[in-house]
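To: structure desk
From: M.T.
Subject: fold request, one chain
Message: Could you run this one when you get a chance? Sequence is below, nothing fancy, just the single chain.
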Amino acid sequence: MHRHIGIYAGTFDPIHAGHLAFAQEAQQFFGLDQVVLLPEAEPRNKPGVAPLSGRMAHVQREIAAFPGLLAMQLAARRFTVHDALPELYATFGREGLVFLFGSDVAPSFVHWPGIEYLLRRHVLAIGLRTQDTEAHLEQTYRTPIRWAALRTAIPHLSSTQIRRQLSMADVSVIRP
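Reply: Done. Structure tokens follow.
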């Protein structure tokens, strides 16, 4: 019997309720046995992220209360089709993998070497942000794929927004 596993790679700097809501929504929608969160050591186009060890510890703390969510660190420094898929196949098998991506990541697929392989062979769950629609995403893809657009009750949350708010809070604390 094949297990159905969601694979959710990302920066998670920091992980927040929006990430967790999307993982749970995908788990329910696709009937996934488990969703594996993969914090990337060197995410694309995101310099200056917190060290992986701290992000991984934070992810593990946050998902501890959620059955079916698991954190895992890949040997690859970032999620790539060439490096990550063989490791994921060796761990979980080739069948039943569903890949979770935010709608902010989906437009960058055109720059990912080998993305056509992933798009042709696997189902995608795309977490829609507040401003995104399915029509917008349809225009992004240039190859037929199997995917579902999911919107949670909190699509407006972003790690960038949280880091900005934390930065502002730190500044206000040290002002005289």
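Reply (cont.): The CA atoms of residues 4 and 96 lie 4 Å apart. Let me know if you need anything else for the meeting.
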